[in-house]
Amino acid sequence: MNTRMISFSPVDAWFFRDGRPYHLGESGQTDVQSLFPPHAPTVIGTVRAALARGQGWDGRGAWNNDLHSTLGNGAHDIGALRFTGPFLTRKQQTLLPVPLHLLGGLRELSDAVRWTPTTFLAPSETALECDLGNVRFPVPLNHPKEGQLKEPAEMWVTVDGYSRILRGESPEQDSLFHSDQLWKTESRVGLARDHASRSAEEGKLYSPSFVRLHKEVQLAVWVDGIPDDWTIPDLNTFGGESRLAHCETEQSERPLPEVPADKIRESGRFTVSLLTPMLLPSTATGQQTHPQPGETLHSLSGAKIVSACVGKPIRIGGWNSVHREPEPLLAYLPAGSTWFCELTRPDALDSLLKMHGQTIGDKPDHGFGQIVIGAWPTSKGDTL
Amino acid sequence: MKTMLYGLLAESPIHPGAGQSTGFVDLPVAREAATDYPVIVGSGMKGALLGMARDHDWDESQRNDVFGKHDNAGGLLVSDARLLLLPVRSLTSSYMWLTCPHLIDRYDRDRKRTLDSDDQLQSIVLEDVAEQPPQYLGPDVGELFLEERQFARAGDLPDGLIETLIPLFAHDKASARLSKQLVVVSDDSFTWFARYGLPVNARNILNEKNKTSKNLWYEETLPPDSLFYCLLAERSAGALGKVNELFGKRPYIQVGGNETIGHGWFALSAPQEGGTQ
């Protein structure tokens, strides 16, 4: 069985609600924002339903028990399927979220004011005593002569551009995209009409913000475990309000930037960045604990964390289509979060490098917690 | 998934409201965010279909089965109605039906995914060049003036384009005019007309006693003869068949605002069918 890339193109516009209520007749239904890109559970559910349809499921009720071994059963059992992504693609190029240890500033380019990379963050030489103990906080390697340093909010980079970042180099400007170059939000207004009076019903006005992708922008997910003879229908519902997506499938390797193994081998230091949100494992009491400086990052034994740039937790749930109710929201570390690590056992390097592109944390089969390994940026040799 | 593609030819001005004002027009039409093309959103189309079902005395269980209810999705999937031809007035001739390479390409892709159609139209390259009059493809009328803009002819329409559009027309007499009135301009020029070339009507409420104005407002509409198309699909078998029954006797649908002043009427073409059951 090979990895298949499934690409979704909108027929018109899409809507992926966040965890806030979105019910007929409830108050607060103005400017209901759509998430984008949707999180893995939404995409996984769509793919599983589409595969089931391809195997004869009529779209209603439970699918045939024969499909459980491949597609799983219910919201959490995904059978034999393994997912990577979802990621945006533009003109067939995969785009990945820019890691948070690359800072930039707003610069006027020919077409617009855009975020451009300025410097990397790296752990400071001296530790600072704080409530976490003595910690080497990340500091910028260079300070711009003017302007402020901003994190790469809503910025995406091609795989080649990401490879440069992992080497500690600046990505080319044409490999970087802000979300407004990929999609636009589209405010819509809806109402319920009283059929007899032909007037709007009281309290039934609502205004969701849909997402409309630009030309040649798609959403893609890579799936392992689909039997070779299974097909996916061309047209499927995707996200809220039963909007439609056109699906194309092709054999394709998972997109992965290059790991700068030589640089890491030379320095004994490396960065670990999340390509997809990570669900921190829970303790027996149900608490999630953040990896702290001096500790080992999950599944990466032989190295210790020195410092980190971790974004604010995001809350991801999903929709349980069997029970027709939302899944509970859980806190995830956002994509782009980066840890700075040092080897504690030089012989562990090879096994650590093998983790490049693998997943850490909970729900790895859903594609959560996919990591890439890069070199610690240094002011020496950087092209920023 | 079984699918159908319907053409929608405007028989009257159409006002698919945006619900928010952006400029001097108090009530603009809804537009796609990324392109600024006028659009009739899927929820509006679906609501119009539901209204038709009520007019045809469908009972509640029939309606819920096809259109869904509060906690259960229905069997019918409705896309946005997408613009394909926009009537624009001309100084030198009758009005022209305007379209552009992007809209034709989009329609081609929609046909491919809806109807599993392999007969692709040839792609059109038409770009405006600075300091030269913009160009058009279409019937030879020499210099073409559309609104206040002048266009130079660059050639004939692509082969097969008119034949591809004909199934979207409910009326043969209307589609017979395509060869004389269909014009392709560049994407940028079309966007200009989509933004600034729609009719804007002033409306007024008069004081009953002294006939002075109590309220004046401006609203944007899509002109009659605008051509849209809409994709319908079914989540569960039978939904499309039921909707087709609605159109069987009288293939007209009212969409959007101003119903009581005659706006919003579309003539539906015969459906083009595709997909699998």
TrEMBL record, chain A:
**What InterPro entries does its record include?**
CRISPR-assoc_protein_Cmr3, CRISPR-Cmr3_IIIB
Q: What is this protein called?
A: CRISPR-associated protein (Cas_Cmr3)
Native species: Thalassoglobus polymorphus
From TrEMBL, chain B:
At the top level of its lineage, which domain of life is listed?
A: Bacteria
Gene Ontology BP annotations: defense response to virus
List the InterPro entries. Answer: CRISPR-assoc_RAMP_Cmr4, RAMP_III_fam
Chaperone in keyword set = no
Assigned keywords, A-Z: Antiviral defense
Where do the CRISPR type III-associated protein domain residues begin and end? 10-266
Q: Where is the signal peptide?
A: none
Q: Which Pfam families match?
A: RAMPs
Query: What NCBIfam families does its record include?
Result: cas_RAMP_Cmr4
PANTHER family linked? CRISPR SYSTEM CMR SUBUNIT CMR4 (PTHR36700:SF1)
Name-wise, this protein is: RAMP superfamily protein
